[in-house]
Predict the structure.
Amino acid sequence: MLSKKLESLTPSVTVGISSKVKEMQKNGMDVINLSIGEPDFTVPEKAKAYGIDSLNRDCTKYDLVAGILPLREEICKKLERENNCHYTPDEIVLASGAKDCITNALLAITDPGDEVILPKPYWVSYPETVKIVGAVPVFLDTKAENGFKATKEELESAITPKTKMIVITNPSNPTGSVYTREELEAIVDVCAKHDVYILADEIYERICYVDGYTSIASISEKAKDITITVNGFAKSLAMTGLRVGYTATNKELAKAMGSIQGHIVSHPNVTAQYIAYGALLECEQDIKDMVATYTKRRNLIIEKMDAIENIGYVKPDGAFYAFIDLSKVAGKFEYKDSFSVEFSDKFLDEYKVAVVPGMGFGLDNYIRISYACSEGEFTEGLDRLAKFIDTIMK
Ligand code: GLU
């Protein structure tokens, strides 16, 4: 007998598709994987050296629940330098990836039945994690003409006495939209007025193609107090498998998340934390080089999408995703339940290209592609998408 929670739980669509593709590739099939957001770079050698050195020094015992102190100190310096946010090491909690940080935050803040507002489209794991902890996801409709960014009015209309938190992903996964400072200030105003926490998922903040990126916690003391900043090393440093994320919060929340983590995992893997530490100390240029490559890819992908008839897209200002609007195609495509799922399945079966159905993000007329892969892969993938759409529209 399994728990009731599982009745409404759906497995991660991003992880599911990517695992399927890896299996197909293992079986010798030539599949282009534009599904998962996993950088095609490797962890910089200079960062790896810190992990190797820590093993040679036998740093393999239990360590502090919140994470190794040198890393937390270095994270504080990074937040100061790059995000204009002032934190002390006792306000930082390392966890096994950003997902784990989100779970820690939800466990620390919500009681069963509390509501968490998720602007649509949302990243696939938010609703499920909210449900796992017994809270209730409340989906907030946003507008395509606003780049699907939540506005003050939209947010105000969704808040109830049970609202505990809103999740703002900036830059957004899946759209790549980036909030301006003014847009964030408006959100902070509403949340401060109603005592609502902001979970600021800033995992893509280094991969941003517009000037003036603003971290929510930098807006004001009040903003900092109600914000749980989530960040990590997977996206900007290609450390997806090492699973190192962190939260920056007020002390009370950091302490609460530490208490929870102390029971669940003790602390994240120490070797991985030393690699993250090395990355912060030594790999600034590597990050810049990777971001320069993403920028080139992003420009190329916009060019390619502009040349495909019958699609639209959200202008990607950050992250490494394009969220493609297939509303016109949906009108011509025969499907039973979910357009984006059936479209993506057929695209994979017939054209050997894996994408993520918009349904996973709450918008069924869309698909998401990732350009965290080689130029050759995503250009070929988009050429095949153009062909597939042509055959549907004929
Ligand atoms: N966050 C990435 C994505 O959206 C990695 C997969 C996952 O954890 O969902 O593709």
Remarks:
- Residues 284-306 form the longest helix (23 residues).
- The two ends are 50 Å apart (CA to CA).
